Amino acid sequence: MYIAVAIIAFGILIADHELGHFIAAKLCGVKVNEFAIGMGPALLKKQGKETLYALRLLPLGGYCSMEGEDEKSEDSRAFTSQHWFKRLIILVAGAANNFILGFLILCVIYFGATGFYGTTVTELVDGYKYSDTGLLIGDEIYSIDGHRTYYYQDITTYLQRTGDEADIVVIREGVKTPLTIKKDHYVTEGEDSYIFGITGRNIIKGSFGESIKFSWYSACNFVRLVWMSLGDLIAGRAKVSEMSGVVGIISVINDVGQEAKTAAIAFENIAYLVSFIAVNLAVMNLLPIPALDGGRIFFLLITTFIEKVFKKKLNPKYERYIHAAGMVLLLGLMALVLVNDVLKIVR
């Protein structure tokens, strides 16, 4: 059941992405030839005034086919005939829709929450200090290694990435006070471990507004996590073999569902994971890589700059060649990740 839920969730995320392009294109006056949810043979088709709407067999895909998007067109409503700013809005809209969906899922999860853990220390392990100045009760942890913290979850996120030393800033009696942590992040007392030796933190009373705020910061935290992961990949701290694609993520979603004590908890945990995937898709799609929306945005800005400064229009076929090559490389990477996912499951 949870595998089916994961597949449906992926279909919704991709449809949501393409819906963002579709809505933006319509609002900007661009002709959309076809809007499809799914890939492969069409199960249902309906011809609108100018757009063919289709529901296709395979749920892991979808597309918004705009006039003149990948070929030359003399139509005044073609994508390439529009002002560069309109094209930018259309290209960004898919990722924006994914981020908004991830944020809305979090809003549903946290709606009605009675409270959220803040960053103010209310209790410490008896006699514990990190340095001569020490972390004191009443300190509000403002940042860790330059990263701003808003809720306790931010503290746990950044502590996972620090080494033997962490530079933190606390607000103590209204003054920002820097502390340097040179010991382990966790303090063990009996069978329990405490981050920074913190055994108590303030609770922010839950409300509709606070739920929205917490959901927003959680979504932004997802963005930071994706950027950190990309940094690890570029720096060599993470390997390509550790990446997961569709198969791996579906497997993880299935595991999350199976391990939950009740179906309600399972769907809540899966919803949280889907929210993270939605934000992940938003960030990844905006990377300046050929064939992705980010690559198209990059070339749009470059060609617009050249045309404005040098008064020379570039031949769009060269951009198409680059995007085609980028698509081949992306498909190769996807195939490699797919093989790794299958091998992980087999092992």
Task: Report on the architecture of this protein.
The chain is an alpha+beta fold and 347 residues long. It folds into two domains: 2-108 and 275-346, no CATH class; 115-205, Roll (Pdz3 Domain), CATH 2.30.42.10. Helix content is 50%, strand content 22%. The strands form four sheets. Strands 5-4-6-7 form a four-stranded antiparallel β-sheet, with helices on one face. Strands 1-2 form a two-stranded antiparallel ribbon. Helix 1 (2-27) packs across helix 5 (246-259) and helix 2 (84-110) runs antiparallel to helix 6 (263-285). The chain is globular. The two termini are 23 Å apart. The model has no long low-confidence stretch (mean pLDDT 85).
Task: Please sum up the structure shown.
By secondary structure, the protein is α+β, with helices and mostly antiparallel strands.
Topology, please?
Blueprint: H1 2-27, E1 32-47, E2 52-66, H2 84-110, E3 115-124, E4 140-144, E5 147-148, H3 152-159, E6 166-172, E7 175-181, E8 186-189, E9 192-195, E10 198-205, H4 208-235, H5 246-259, H6 263-285, H7 293-310, H8 316-346
Antiparallel strand pairs: 1-2, 3-10, 4-5, 4-6, 6-7, 8-9
Helix pairs in contact: 1-2, 1-5, 1-6, 2-4, 2-6, 2-7, 4-6, 5-6, 5-8
